[in-house]
Known about the structure:
By secondary structure, the chain is of the alpha/beta class. It folds into 2 domains: 3-88, Arc Repressor Mutant, subunit A (Orthogonal Bundle); 92-307, D-Maltodextrin-Binding Protein, domain 2 (3-Layer(aba) Sandwich). Helices cover 44% and strands 22% of the residues. The protein has helices at 3-14, 17-24, 28-42, 58-89, 98-115, 128-136, 210-218, 232-240, 253-257, 287-302, 304-307, and strands spanning 47-50, 53-56, 92-96, 121-125, 142-146, 157-172, 181-182, 192-195, 226-229, 246-249, 261-263, 265-266, 272-280. The strands form 4 sheets. Strands 3, 4, 5, 6, 10, 11 and 13 form a 7-stranded mixed beta sheet that branches. Strand 8 (192-195), helix 7 (210-218) and strand 9 form a beta-alpha-beta unit. Helix 1 packs across helix 2 (17-24), helix 1 (3-14) crosses helix 3 (28-42) and helix 5 (98-115) packs across helix 10. It is elongated.
Amino acid sequence: xxxxxxQFLEVATFQNVSHAAKKLCLSQPTLTHNMKKLEESLEVQLxxxxxxxxxxTEFGEVLLEQTRIMQRIYDNTLTKMEMLKERHERELKIxxxxxxxxxxxxxxxxxxxxVHSAANIxxxxxxxxxxxxLLLSGDIDLFIGHEIPGLNKRAGVLFIPLFISRDKVFVRKxxxxxxxxxxxxxxxxxxxxxxxxxxxxHSHVVEDFQxxxxxxxxxxxxxxxxxxxxxxxxxxxxxxxxNGLLPFPGSMEGxxxxxxxxxxxxxxxxxxxxxxxxxIREKQDDRHIKDVLELIYQSLEKNxxxxx
Length: 308
């Protein structure tokens, strides 16, 4: 708001130039001069000077009423601008696999919302190659997922390891394989359900496909019937209503129990991999990124009992 009007507001409120000048950190002569200039510019008398201070005229009362309205509008405008600034400066754009969302990321997001209540939040859940594509294009700030074997070394990203995740194979409770201990060979005759499988359009982020091809060959996925979806809800439905096998991080066993899905007793490990955070290397020292990483670490520690 205009400085002269702010000064007028103080003088009119105190009805005393000396007290108003002290609050405004101005000299009394300067404030008196400014009030006279204001009266001259409006061509009306705003104050009647008395021995007891400054008494408002009818014109002064009108200006006081309107100035208070302007002050409220101005203060409200500043508040809204601060909120908008917070919304953009603290906007969070983060990606994750389904498991990490349920196990600890949603807890981190709850904390973030409490700390930055005015900030925009965008969550992308899905395949790690897709997440990498979004990271490189600037659509997300970071993502949590499995380490990508054969990743293009020129991508300019940094992988921060968090923990090792081991997959289990989940099936409906009355599945034929729940009656015995199983080897990987015993899984051959049943369809495999893949949540968020790799998509060809995101393959450009991988330089060497051999590690991925080798893993799929070892699991005989190239020879099997595959049920695939980017929706965890759909994949759970398929597991509940078919003999399909649902490989997924073993730490989600508690989550799957509510759908009557159980893990098979395997005589050998299915798969394991490092899970961590991917960020653009040049942004690793960004204050916003550092703050988000710290909240992720805190949430991970709080929910570590679910992961191991």
